[in-house]
Amino acid sequence: MSEERRTRTAEAFFGRRHGKTIRPMQAVVLADVLPRLKVDLSAASPGDLRALFPVPVDRIVLEIGFGGGEHLHHAAGAAPATGFIGVEPFVNGMASLLRMLEREARPNIRLYDDDAAALLDWLPDGSLDRIDLFYPDPWPKKKHWKRRFVNRANLDRFARVLKPGGLFRFASDIDHYVNWTLLEVARQGGFSWRAEMPDDWRAPYEGWPGTRYEAKALREGRRPAYLTFVRT
């Protein structure tokens, strides 16, 4: 195994790959639909990511860990001139989004079902307008904090692939992970936090449809935070 591969494995997108048993229709879409939408990292990265999409797009957004796909599907429908790349290694989440796409196609979506760090390393410099990371696994035990996706290595990746002025958006209902993210981003030094008053991080993003994870957090009495950072 190469040194590059060992490093990437150590920084992988940790989490479960399987949950509930895959139902027959889910298996069908994973076998038939996903290959048509999947970003192929074995191919050379295009100089212009707009070439990944069969429709004209003028902006590119990456959503890492899209869960059940509610936000990604909604966002792609609301902004058809934006190309969205969604990453989700959890098989059940990917199958959920693919079923939505069967019912309501989104030609401006492309998908990747493995390690987000590998995709980030494949992307060209300054190729993204925004990165969204919503409700990532908080890994609450201190011994597991090193597995949190927000870390110096991944923030360096974000800084490389985002355009100057591009956005990194982070939402979580776990106070400690919110504080962790603020500190890690400040240490990285390539971003500024776009907040001047409490509503700038307490109010959901414009056009926010909500997610199943957010709904659970609200039911359990946890108040989410919505952070926005600008690539300087």
TrEMBL record:
Pfam families documented for this protein: Methyltransf_4 (PF02390)
EC number(s) stated in the UniProt entry for this protein: 2.1.1.33
Residues annotated to bind substrate: K141, D173, T211, R212, Y213, E214
Top-rank EC class of the record's enzyme: transferase
Gene Ontology terms for molecular function: tRNA (guanine(46)-N7)-methyltransferase activity
This protein's pathway: tRNA modification; N(7)-methylguanine-tRNA biosynthesis
Entry GO terms, CC: tRNA methyltransferase complex
Substrates-to-products reaction catalysed: guanosine(46) in tRNA + S-adenosyl-L-methionine = N(7)-methylguanosine(46) in tRNA + S-adenosyl-L-homocysteine
Keyword terms, alphabetized: Methyltransferase, S-adenosyl-L-methionine, Transferase, tRNA processing
Family (UniProt): Belongs to the class I-like SAM-binding methyltransferase superfamily. TrmB family.
Function field: Catalyzes the formation of N(7)-methylguanine at position 46 (m7G46) in tRNA.
Protein name as it appears in the record: tRNA (guanine-N(7)-)-methyltransferase
Source organism per UniProt: Mesorhizobium australicum
